[in-house]
Design a protein that fits this description.
Keywords: Glycoprotein, Protease inhibitor, Secreted, Serine protease inhibitor, Signal. By secondary structure, this protein is α+β, with helices and mostly antiparallel strands. It has three domains: 237 residues, Sandwich (Immunoglobulin-like); 120 residues, no CATH class; 181 residues, Rossmann fold (3-Layer(aba) Sandwich), CATH 3.40.50. The protein is 19% helix and 36% strand. The strands form seven sheets. It has a ten-stranded mixed beta sheet. Strands 20, 21, 22, 23, 24, 25 and 26 form a seven-stranded mixed beta sheet that branches. A hairpin with a 2-residue loop joins strand 7 and strand 8. Helix 3 packs antiparallel against helix 4, helix 7 packs across helix 9 and helix 9 runs antiparallel to helix 10. The radius of gyration is 26 Å and the shape is globular.
Length: 663
């Protein structure tokens, strides 16, 4: 077992927290490597503003005490189950309302919430959203106070609830969430947000990772920095015998108060574990248990497929100012990264369409210099004709059919269509007909004025994805980062075949990119591993058909011990894909898919956009309902119950302007 252990060393000054992180290889009984890094927390809050309107200031914390705060995350084959446990004592001679407030990754599904009060256990119940909303409305009609609303940020969502705790009594909050980690640019990232909001005597973060393929590297980062302290770190490669890692972080009460923004409010920051696993160019890693399997396919050392890419850039008036400047900067960086055997085109649009060149051209130095000059002179003006711009981009790719290449269409816009065809369904239909399944469309929505649901549906209908670009100082890096995810196609027309498999998740993929991963899960017919035969068929460079079969890599089994984790991976992935499919459909087909996703969500107690969790409380308490927010929703402001004589808001001021915005 490999242990990644932050050990607290003597601090050189009160403004720095230095940790020694090391891995110990138990098999060989020697230290594999040592790694020094600064894990630091908090930004200085010089002019704090409340996150929420009408939130009273945080009181001196002498009436209640979070005496224990534990985060325990277990990762097996890239599927993470995280449990946050907070134990709070009411030190007052009267009842107090105590709030539990944590942040979790947006990609996760909450699967359990419990409260332990005075020997009683109160389990949250996952219900269909309409049913939960009815229960909430009935509570409101009885004059009970507001419920619970989650907010959307870049990578995190918020969970909030509260309960009244009797004098000198205790409450334990326990929240469980699950997520399938996504491989992006050659790595997985597990984000743990630690925010108890007061120093805690028993503060522990434990992360246990088990990967039977073995780790190729692992790294730990603290996202938030202390003023004038740079974060230094280096990732380390491991030997192939390292299959388990343990990361733990146990800061003392004093250390929790040393960062600039902590003071008496304790820790507020992220611990991010970054790693990848050993892999080859074979079939990949397949695990099975109790009649289910999950297949991780990510070959690496394959020749890159030359690409044809068209960038369709919104230059309407709403893009003026910093947005157009950042777009220019990102586009010039992206052009610099094109390989010479790539072909590309540029289109800018407002109410009219402007081509840099009418046809795709090779990414040689002369063309790139001309394109960068064009990009640097993009000016914001006019209205927004999305329909014609995307159709022109699709035409350019359709007219440039090149054997042994992969085509990509990328749209960047910050608003709704205001000229030309403006009916959203008509635009989606026109684009779908023009692309005809021949290449993916990636839509980047800049800011919150854009109709993200429209972009998301249009992307999914054309084998792509939509991504929000946040209006921050790093927007150009966000744009460049997205491009890097699709910059290097390695395979096209990927088909995953499973003889002896059923109830499969998505098995056809238009393209596979370097640094990404294809994940498929399903059931093994009659749980017969002997008749289960996986195979992957794809097209590599120069139209060579490439087949990955069982002979490359045998199927791994988790053994005969009952374990529902593989089944939950299947359920998680199936629900995610059904929700994407439901967005694309209409009429009876839409309702059928929606019903299937709802049934699975209820069966596995996942809080999804179709379900809600009703927080069960002692008799007489207010009703709280947790809804899963959608990416397309504008962040909402939470209006808390305000009764300063009887309630406590378990919150702290923040310098961030948007609710729940966490990079």
């Amino acid at each position: 077992m490999c242990q990644l252990v932050p050990h607290v060393l003597p601090l050189p000054s009160l403004s720095s927290c230095v940790y020694l992180v090391h891995f110990t290889d138990v098999i060989h009984q020697h230290i594999v490597f040592h790694l020094f890094l600064h894990l630091t927390f908090g930004q200085p809050i010089r002019s704090p503003k409340p996150l929420f309107k009408n939130v009273p200031p945080v009181f001196a914390q002498d009436d209640w005490d979070i005496y224990s705060f534990h985060i325990n995350s277990t990762v097996t084959s890239r599927y993470a189950t995280t449990v946050i446990t907070s134990r709070v004592a009411n030190r007052m001679n009267e009842s107090k309302e105590i709030e539990f407030h944590v942040r979790i990754p947006k990609n996760a599904f909450i699967s359990k919430f419990r409260m332990f009060i005075d020997g009683q256990v109160y389990d949250g119940v996952v219900k269909a959203k309409e049913q939960a909303q009815q229960q909430y409305s009935e509570a409101v009609s009885r004059g009970e106070s507001a419920g619970l609303v989650s907010s959307v940020g870049r990578t995190l969502e918020e969970f909030k609830t509260s309960v009244t705790v009797a004098a000198h009594k205790k409450v334990t909050f326990e929240l469980t969430y699950e997520e399938l980690m996504k491989r992006t640019r050659g790595k997985y990232e597990l984000q743990i947000h630690a925010r108890p909001m007061q120093p805690v005597s028993d503060f522990k973060v434990d992360v246990h990772i088990q990967e039977e393929a073995g780790f190729s590297f692992i790294d730990v980062k603290g996202e938030i920095k202390i003023t004038d302290l740079s974060v230094s770190h280096e990732s380390k490669e491991l030997n192939s015998f390292c299959f388990q890692a343990w990361v733990y972080f146990y800061p003392t009460v004093d250390q929790q108060k040393m960062c600039d923004s902590c003071s008496d409010q304790g820790m507020n920051g992220d611990l991010v574990i970054i790693y990848d696993v050993n892999r080859d160019n074979g079939l990949g890693h397949i695990k099975k248990s109790d009649g289910y399997f999950v297949h991780h396919f990510a070959p690496s050392d394959l020749p890159r497929v030359p690409k044809n890419v068209v960038f369709v850039i919104d230059q309407s008036g709403s893009m003026s100012g910093r947005k157009i400047l950042q777009t220019r900067t990102a586009l010039i960086h992206i052009l610099n990264d094109l390989a010479e055997d790539d072909h590309f085109g540029l289109i800018t649009f407002d109410g009219s369409i402007l081509h840099w060149k009418r046809e795709l051209v090779q990414a040689n130095s002369k063309n790139l210099e001309s394109a960068k000059n064009f990009a640097s002179n993009i000016q914001a003006r006019g209205s927004t004709d999305i329909n014609e711009a995307v159709l022109q981009g699709a035409r350019m790719l359709n007219d440039h059919s090149r054997e042994g290449s992969a085509s990509i269409l990328i749209l960047l816009t910050d608003g709704d269509p205001t000229s030309g065809v403006t009916n959203l369904e008509n635009i989606q239909s026109n684009v779908r007909q023009a692309i005809a399944g021949k290449f993916p469309l990636y839509c980047l929505g800049f800011g919150f004025d854009v109709d993200f649901k429209f972009l998301e549906k249009m992307s999914l209908q054309n084998n792509g994805v939509a991504r929000r670009i946040y209006e921050d100082s790093d927007a150009d890096l966000q744009l460049k980062g997205f491009y890097e995810e699709v910059a290097t196609p390695l395979l096209t027309d990927v088909t995953m075949i499973y003889v002896g498999g059923t109830n499969l998740t998505q098995t056809n993929f238009s393209q596979y990119y370097n640094g990404s991963e294809i994940v498929v899960a399903g059931e093994i017919t009659d749980n017969n591993i002997e008749t289960f035969t996986p195979q992957v068929v794809a097209i590599s460079v120069k139209i060579d058909l490439i087949i990955f079969s069982k002979s490359n890599k045998t199927v791994e089994s988790t053994g005969t011990v009952s374990d529902d984790r593989i089944q939950r991976v299947w359920a998680y992935l199936t629900v995610k894909q059904l929700l994407d499919k439901e967005l694309q459909l209409s009429g009876p087909e839409k309702e059928k898919v929606k019903k299937e996703a709802l049934e699975l969500s209820l069966k596995y107690s996942f809080v999804t956009p179709l379900t809600s969790m009703v927080v069960t409380k002692p008799p007489g308490e207010n009703t709280d309902v947790l809804h899963k927010p959608k990416e397309g929703e504008t962040p909402q402001r939470w209006q808390p119950r305000v009764d300063q004589s009887f309630s406590r808001q378990y919150l702290a001021p923040s310098s961030l302007g948007r609710v729940g915005l966490t990079d």
